[in-house]
Write a structure and sequence with these properties.
This protein is mainly beta. The chain is 9% helix and 50% strand. The chain has 4 helices and 52 strands. A 5-stranded antiparallel sheet has the order 4-3-2-1-7, with no helix packed on it. Strands 8, 29, 30, 51 and 52 form a 5-stranded antiparallel sheet that branches. Helix 1 (29-40) packs across helix 3 (63-77). The longest helix has 23 residues, at 123-145.
């Protein structure tokens, strides 16, 4: 067999294998294309534009995609970019392939060669050999006559416009993908991309007069089905989509009913029916399965789930009436269930540790396609008969939540949504070890100089700690499925109170390799704060009722404030007081002991009204407030006369902040990426 000797490796192009001794790697199609191009252009500087033209056939891709492909090929060769033996980076110019290259032929040992003239001793052996050979030939003919399995690994961007992409819908009859694009200026707008083109045509916006679109559900011929508002009335709509005029017509059918809270919905064109996961407002995230049509026939369908499970996603396949349901537990497990709407029969198909996101039927109705909680940059296929999933796509950006089947019967459409959040000082502080992940929710140490923060730099949400002139180091590792929302640090720096997915709280020691204790809530946790070294508060919404609850370090509830209070926090400078805010964002001050002994509003001192906020801190008599809408940092001075405004700064912070000795650290968006992609199956 012919091969190409590349340094210490042999490349067998017939099998896409790269072999070094006993070490063998099968290259994916794009890695093989890049390596072949390097082999054909040795010791020559190759720029990004030339790589884009040669490897992506002119399709426009980001520099990040090129960097990642080169980096992945380097990993295959175990090549150090600082001391390269194979791929050399030429700053501001491109890459040079510097490894020695030679062609060769695999030697065949003499003992393995049979003489063509040798005759068998007995005729029966000859007959037996003929029969065996015939069987082998029949097996080979059967094997190679089957349809070859598809090879995935490449993906192509369809939406090279700024904004966040959501809810891609494949319009099979028109060879387009419809999606919502979210920007600060225009909100949610409707866009179209041609998925059968060579990807040179830019997507186009669609005029939707009178509409405010919230979610795209599906299509029926030239009609688009979606949820949103039309002329300020909330409902479900079917409207003609005129691609030539780039306009969405007034609704041909409408159902004005938005009484429930909807989490996921699909439209089944063959039945002209919508299925939804939704709940009544007082039941938070306990979704039920509903079905309805434009005549207004709304029904709840019976499902059987244990109390710890929550329905998260659903899908339908055009070849069957069977639904696909994905359920999650609070502690991060997933189940995939098939469901027959007419008989209400359901069957468990897949159980998995870790959260499955956006699961849909595969093309053959024999498995699912999904993205996972760790790493969020990969998309998988898993057959109901296989124990392990197969990788379909791997990107540098996060694959988030929305996947659809391509009309060609083999590819898939999906969206990415990735933010780069960095920690920043309001005034100059020590150099922060930021990454290109989500570095957020900073908490400044009280007894030392350092900062705790949450980051996705390892591929999943984890807690890190950094001191001056040092790199950030991870704390005891949390489960990969963790979805860390926020955290609070105890005044003695011994414990972190970590919000997991707004439904659980972890109490983690900062200096021990253990998970600590956990509290689970049916409600929704939206605020946490330490009152002292031994007590912390949680603001919990349950059945539309917001309450402040107080716990000790053993995670035992020791008090609950009366209805009407939404946050409780303390000022280290005045530990004898507790500060509360009510539903109208009015700030009060109470003696500390009163909150544990049945608080009476008359015991408190009204300080003044605050504006709506997303985060609130009090230190040394100064209120630090992050405005809810504009992400501005406002400062107020506490005094006997009330609140006195000190300053207001637009810092664009909506990923948490903290203050220590007047120094503010916060999480701010540094970059944002979002696109609609399609896989390229070969």
């Amino acid at each position: 067999m012919d091969f190409i000797q590349i340094g210490e490796f042999r490349l067998y192009q017939q099998t896409n294998e790269l072999i070094n001794g006993e070490h063998s790697i099968t290259l994916d199609p794009r890695q093989l294309s890049l390596l072949t191009f390097f082999i054909n252009n040795p010791n020559r500087i190759i720029g990004r534009d030339e790589l884009q033209s040669a490897i992506w056939q002119g399709a426009i891709v980001t520099d990040n995609a090129i960097n990642k492909l080169v980096a992945n090929l380097r990993k295959v060769f175990c090549d150090d970019p600082k001391a390269p033996q194979y791929i050399q980076t030429v700053p501001k110019q491109g890459y040079r392939f510097i490894a020695p290259i030679n062609s060769g032929v695999e030697e065949i040992s003499a003992s393995s060669v049979q003489s063509a003239k040798q005759k068998p001793a007995f005729s029966r052996y000859l007959l037996l050999g003929v029969l065996i050979l015939a069987g082998l030939l029949s097996s080979l003919v059967w094997h190679y006559s089957r349809a070859p399995s598809l090879q995935y690994g490449e993906s192509q961007a369809l939406s090279r416009v700024s904004g966040g992409k959501m809810f891609p819908i494949v319009l099979a009859s028109q060879s387009h993908v419809a999606f919502l694009n979210v920007t600060a200026d225009q909100g949610r707008s409707l866009w179209m991309a041609d998925y059968d083109s060579d990807n040179r045509a830019l997507p186009r916006s669609v005029d939707a007069p009178g509409y405010h679109l919230q979610q795209l559900l599906g299509s029926q011929g030239e009609y688009l089905v979606f949820k949103g508002y039309y002329q300020q009335r909330c409902g479900w709509f079917k409207a003609r989509l005129d691609l030539a005029a780039q306009q969405l017509a007034p609704p041909s059918e409408a159902l004005y009913n938005c009484d429930l809270i909807y989490h996921d919905s699909i439209y089944v064109a063959g039945e002209d029916r919508i299925y939804s996961l939704a709940h009544e407002r007082r039941f938070e995230h306990k979704n039920d399965l509903y079905t309805f049509d434009f005549s207004g026939d709304i029904r709840k369908l019976p499902t059987e789930l244990e109390s710890s499970w929550r329905l998260a996603y659903l899908d339908a396949h055009p070849g069957t009436r069977e639904l696909l349901l994905t359920a999650h537990t609070i502690d991060g497990n997933s189940s995939v269930i098939t469901y027959e709407p007419e008989s209400a029969q359901q069957a468990l198909q897949i159980s998995r540790t870790g959260l499955i996101h956006g699961a849909i039927w595969d093309h053959d109705h024999k498995g699912i396609v999904f993205s996972s909680s760790s790493p969020r940059t990969q998309m998988y296929h898993q057959s109901f008969t296989d124990s392990q999933p197969t990788l379909l796509s791997s990107l540098s950006d996060k694959i988030c939540c929305n996947i659809a089947r391509h009309s060609n019967g083999k590819d898939y459409i999906f969206t990415t949504y990735d933010k780069d959040i960095e920690l920043q000082w309001l005034e100059t502080g020590f150099v922060l070890d930021n990454s290109n992940g989500l570095d957020r929710s900073p908490r400044l140490a009280h007894t030392d100089t350092g900062v705790y923060f949450i980051s996705d730099r390892s591929g999943s949400s984890q807690v890190y700690y950094q001191q001056p002139e040092e790199q950030a180091r991870p704390l005891p590792r949390l489960p990969d499925h963790a979805r860390l929302r926020d955290m609070a640090l105890s005044p003695d720096d011994e414990f972190l109170l970590i919000n997991h997915d707004n439904h659980a709280m972890w109490l983690i020691p900062t200096n021990e390799a253990q998970q600590g204790n956990t509290l689970f809530f049916d409600g929704y946790i939206y605020q946490q704060s330490w009152l002292s070294n031994s007590l912390f508060t949680l603001s919990v919404k349950q059945n539309e009722l917001k309450r402040v609850q107080i716990y000790n370090r053993q995670m035992q509830q020791v008090a609950q404030l009366p209805e009407g209070w939404i946050t409780a926090l303390s000022d280290p400078a005045t530990p004898e007081y507790v500060y509360l805010t009510d539903m109208e964002h009015v700030l009060y001050r109470f003696p500390f002991a009163s909150i544990l002994n049945g608080i009476d509003r008359t015991q408190g001192e009204k300080i003044g009204a605050l504006e709506p906020f997303s985060n609130l801190e009090i230190e040394n008599g100064i209120v630090y407030l992050m405005t809810k809408e504009w992400h501005e940092l406002a400062r107020y001075k506490l005094s006997d006369e009330g609140l006195h405004p000190l300053s207001r700064q637009d810092i664009g912070s909506y990923m948490g902040f903290d203050v220590r000795d007047g120094q503010v650290i916060y999480g701010r968006k540094a970059a944002f990426r979002s696109d609609v992609y399609k896989t390229i199956a070969r």
